[in-house]
């Protein structure tokens, strides 16, 4: 427990107190982490380094944490690097005077652009020693790269990457066999990997969060000449986890933590309008009886599960003392008597997609409601028939810069939860109370705003007929939620056992559809010649940060769709599988082309089976062997634009579904964080 020993130091030599933290110190930490797969050791390296930053240059703590989690800003700021492999290869070639073809060949052989950069730098004569990079400098340079826009943006991005790579230290390892060596603490390697969006260190975001809590509690104790107790460490971890789940913004949390101390953090960092929180999610079930078993002896409520897009609406009235967080790029849009923002399931800003919701908001917010955060589903609405339309209709809406007068597909907002009201978070209140507040503070307006239809009956046949009604009303099925007691509080970012979903079409199937990442494709034959005929899909393993293959899919696509997919996917073809793809090595199992991990598809399956061809959940179901889980008779349902690859169904979830096939589990245990 290094964190307990107040004298333990990070191995990198100290820098001047107050001086910018050298980027090399972070790379040294990364390369120590790279040498292990043990989470505790990873955490130790992380927290020792963070503690050193707190001691010497606390101003750099924020960019340090951001670079550790491979982010430049909170998700809701909408800042993405959006740089493909070929752009990075061009920058590596240009900055080291090597031909693109040589760089490509290296990438083919080595398969890790980070190491290709190291190799390229190692063979380049050094004309001058560049000024050492600093963490804040690298963060700023990466931010500049991400925010380049307009004409010629790609070219300017390459120039900026070139400049950054030229000032980086590649650590001359020319004597080392780069294909076997991990490349050491080279700055160029980690810059390139950051640009690719994968540091490949097995450093999960949650590990960084816990390490940060450990670092700060040790640092605070050290200032008093003490060592923190185990219970203090645990308390610090729990505080930081809770605070982050309600206010997922290191930009706000880190300065407050340094100013007030970790134990006081909850007082200063609370859920606030303008900063989207990660939504609470549901566990799948495949029978009403499973729901009854789970909630035995407790009250629950059933709601329609609308098939639209999740929308978290944040609002502050102009005349209230509060302000919508100004850290947003859009900083909220004018809406009725106030300012509002709408966020997706991913915390992306949807305000530009739904100006029609913002324009009508004043009709459904009651006079005395001064601020709120609402959890809702925005659903396509048939104005003539006055009913819900299928999800596919919603997908035809433009995503950006929508003008109210051009809106063809109208939406109705179905509100199912209230997280914040009139200056106070209400997440800890029981659902029954939150629902009462919701009904008191808003008024339904036909075709524009409604409360999710609910039913509090607890009997099997009541639930069955409510499920039938929901299907008739074009919904996906039911959400069943704990209604009373502390367990019925809103749990941000958790896939919780206190929310269960029953989907109409999986009552006899495996329990849920899966959201999978497209990682490869096969050329079509016969009628499908000229486009791709089938695809290789993978689930995501957050603990190893890898994509594990799970099936080939060729069913559920129309001809037109295949043509369209051929166009979009051709743009993200890569020469070889990413090193973080886990797939069988058998030559007969390789797809014709490999793809960047970018698109998530929803897929249904008849059942799950074990196969040596795929690797999904292998460590869970067949750790000693070589069989992963695979889908039988998979069928394409839709593209999930609202999910990023790292939000695809996880290997653990696939393994859970596989185990559940045999018996309906009644597994108890805490909810798991879904979004880490
Ligand atoms: P799915 O593909 O089933 O939407 P998911 O992983 O996106 O899966 P889940 O938590 O599993 O999300 O299912 C809940 C989703 O259902 C929410 O994200 C929300 O968009 C939608 N939804 C529709 N009606 C409700 C409701 N009454 N309560 C909660 N969520 C609802």
From TrEMBL:
Record field: catalytic activity: ATP + (deoxyribonucleotide)n-3'-hydroxyl + 5'-phospho-(deoxyribonucleotide)m = (deoxyribonucleotide)n+m + AMP + diphosphate
Organism: Echria macrotheca
Protein name: DNA ligase
Top-level EC class: ligase
The ATP-dependent DNA ligase family profile domain, residue ranges: 404-541
GO function terms (MF aspect): ATP binding; DNA binding; DNA ligase (ATP) activity
Family named by the database record: Belongs to the ATP-dependent DNA ligase family.
GO biological process entries: cell division; DNA biosynthetic process; DNA recombination; DNA repair; Okazaki fragment processing involved in mitotic DNA replication
Sorted UniProt keywords: ATP-binding, Cell cycle, Cell division, DNA damage, DNA recombination, DNA repair, DNA replication, Ligase, Nucleotide-binding
Gene Ontology, cellular component aspect: mitochondrion; nucleus
Enzyme nomenclature, EC number: 6.5.1.1
Highest taxon of source: Eukaryota
Region (Disordered): 642-676
């Amino acid at each position: 427990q290094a964190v307990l020993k107040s004298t333990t130091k990070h191995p990198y030599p100290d820098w001047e107190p107050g001086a910018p933290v050298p980027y090399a110190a972070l790379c040294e930490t990364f390369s120590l982490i790279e040498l292990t797969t043990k989470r505790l050791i990873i955490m130790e390296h992380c927290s020792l380094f963070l503690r050193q930053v707190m001691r010497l240059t606390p101003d750099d703590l924020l960019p340090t944490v951001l670079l550790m989690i491979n982010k430049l800003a909170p998700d809701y700021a909408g800042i993405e690097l959006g740089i493909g492999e070929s752009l990075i290869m061009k920058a590596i070639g240009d900055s080291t005077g090597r031909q693109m073809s040589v760089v490509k060949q290296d990438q083919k052989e080595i398969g890790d652009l980070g190491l290709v950069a190291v190799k390229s730098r190692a063979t380049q004569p050094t004309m001058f020693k560049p000024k050492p990079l600093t963490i804040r400098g690298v963060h700023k340079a990466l931010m500049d790269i991400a925010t380049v826009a307009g004409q010629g943006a790609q070219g300017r991005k390459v120039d900026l990457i070139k400049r950054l790579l030229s000032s980086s230290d590649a650590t001359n390892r020319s004597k080392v066999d780069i294909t076997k060596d991990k490349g050491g603490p080279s700055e160029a390697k980690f810059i390139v990997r950051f640009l690719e969006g994968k540091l490949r260190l097995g450093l999960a975001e949650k590990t960084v969060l816990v390490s940060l809590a450990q670092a700060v509690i040790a640092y605070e104790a050290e200032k008093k000449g003490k060592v923190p107790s185990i219970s203090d460490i645990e308390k610090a971890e729990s505080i930081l986890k809770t605070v982050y789940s309600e206010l997922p913004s290191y930009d706000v949390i880190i300065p407050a933590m340094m100013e007030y101390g970790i134990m006081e953090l909850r007082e200063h960092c609370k859920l606030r309008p303008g900063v989207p929180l990660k939504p609470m999610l549901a566990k799948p079930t495949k029978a009403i009886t499973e729901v009854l078993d789970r909630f035995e002896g407790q009250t629950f409520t059933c709601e329609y599960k609308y098939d639209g897009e999740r929308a978290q609406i944040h609002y502050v009235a102009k005349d209230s003392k509060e302000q919508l967080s100004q850290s947003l790029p859009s900083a909220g849009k004018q809406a009725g008597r106030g300012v509002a923002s709408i966020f997706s399931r991913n915390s992306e800003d949807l305000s530009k997609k739904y100006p029609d919701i913002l324009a009508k908001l004043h009709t459904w917010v009651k006079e005395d409601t001064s601020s709120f955060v609402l959890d809702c589903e925005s659903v396509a609405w048939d104005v003539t028939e006055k009913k819900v339309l299928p999800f596919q209709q919603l997908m035809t809406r433009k995503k950006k810069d929508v003008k109210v007068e051009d809106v063809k597909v109208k939406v109705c907002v179905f509100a199912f939860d209230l997280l914040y009201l009139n200056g106070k978070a209400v997440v800890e209140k029981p659902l029954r109370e939150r629902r009462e507040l919701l009904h008191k503070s808003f008024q339904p307006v036909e075709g524009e705003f409604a409360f999710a239809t609910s039913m509090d009956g607890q009997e099997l046949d009541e639930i069955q007929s409510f499920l039938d009604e929901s299907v008739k009303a074009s919904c996906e099925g039911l959400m069943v939620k704990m209604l009373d007691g502390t367990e019925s509080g809103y749990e941000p970012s958790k896939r919780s056992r206190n929310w269960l979903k029953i989907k109409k079409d999986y009552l006899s199937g495996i329990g849920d559809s899966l959201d999978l990442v497209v990682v490869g494709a096969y050329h079509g034959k016969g009628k499908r010649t000229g486009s791709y005929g089938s695809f290789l899909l993978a689930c995501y393993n957050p603990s190893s940060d890898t994509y594990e293959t799970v099936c080939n899919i060729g069913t559920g696509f129309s001809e037109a769709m295949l043509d369209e997919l051929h166009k979009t996917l051709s743009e993200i073809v890569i020469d070889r599988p990413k090193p973080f793809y886990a797939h069988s090595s058998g030559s007969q199992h390789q797809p014709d082309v490999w793809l960047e991990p970018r698109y998530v598809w929803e897929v249904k399956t008849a059942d799950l089976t074990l196969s040596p061809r795929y690797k999904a959940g292998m460590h869970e179901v067949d750790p000693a062997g070589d069989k992963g889980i695979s889908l039988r008779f998979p069928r394409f349902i839709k593209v999930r634009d609202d999910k990023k690859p790292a939000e695809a169904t996880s290997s653990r979830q696939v393994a859970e579904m596989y185990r559940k096939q045999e018996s309906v589990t009644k597994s108890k245990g805490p909810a798991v964080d879904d979004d880490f």
